[in-house]
Design a protein that fits this description.
With 238 residues, this protein is of the alpha/beta class. It contains eight helices and 13 strands. Helices cover 40% and strands 21% of the residues.
């Protein structure tokens, strides 16, 4: 059974989330403040953390930042009552994988949780023979079994969504994906207005894997269309 940690100080919201996730067979632990949530996330390997932005004790942004600094890469879905773009961008910059703005649709929350858990499960069952994907021409190696990435021999720490995004693009070198297509494939939903989520993750990914993020060679922009993985980058799988 998948296990989710909900860090939310509003007990009514926490209970609602727990009830609906239990209906789809997901176990839920609850923490009502940031310090307890951080301790729980350190103590146990969860499949997903649903993290409120405004929390007593320690704010959600800081919880997220500390987890990523400790290389705890559990997917994080951030909940926020704030509507300012900067708050959502800061969440993504601190390592959150996605966000929902309150008040949110419970059906949408459940759909996103299911999509995240499904993708986690898919990578968990990748056959060992297909785990290592090497792209010698650009010095990139992706291991789907351990979810590790190295660039020119240097290990790169990626969040869950950054890894998913890179591997999805790498599977189809040269193929152009629109932002809407990437939303559907990686996040599991395709609502207008969320395209900036893709942009933020692409920018973060480039800052980690590109020699010069301003002149990307691995993940390239196709202006007016979307993004693609390096043309002609052949892979060797082991």
């Amino acid at each position: 059974m998948s296990q989710v940690l909900v860090v939310e100080d509003n007990r009514d919201i926490a209970h609602l989330v727990q009830m609906h996730l239990s209906d789809i067979g997901v176990g839920v632990d609850h923490a009502a403040d940031g310090n307890v949530g951080l301790a729980e996330a350190r103590r146990r390997a969860y499949d997903l953390i649903i993290l409120d932005l405004m929390l007593p004790g320690l704010e959600g942004q800081e919880v997220c930042r500390r987890l990523r600094a400790e290389n705890i890469l559990t997917p994080i879905l951030m909940l926020t009552a704030k509507t300012a773009e900067i708050d959502r961008v800061m969440g993504l910059e601190n390592g959150a994988d996605d966000y929902l703005t309150k008040p949110f649709s419970v059906l949408e929350l459940v759909a996103r949780v299911k999509a995240i858990l499904r993708r986690q499960d898919q990578y968990r069952h990748v056959a060992p023979a297909q785990a290592a994907h090497r792209f010698p021409a650009i010095g990139l190696e992706i291991n789907t079994a351990t979810r590790e990435v190295t660039v020119r021999g240097r290990p790169i720490e990626l969040t869950a969504k950054e890894f998913d995004l890179l591997f999805h693009l790498a599977r189809y070198p040269g193929q152009v994906f629109s932002r809407a297509q990437l939303l559907d494939s990686i996040w599991g939903y395709g609502h207008e207005g969320y395209e900036h989520t893709v942009n933020s993750h692409i920018n973060r990914l480039r800052s980690k894997i590109e020699i010069d993020p301003a002149k990307p060679m691995i993940v390239r922009t196709v202006w007016g269309v979307g993004y693609k993985f390096a043309d002609g980058a052949t892979t060797r799988s082991h």
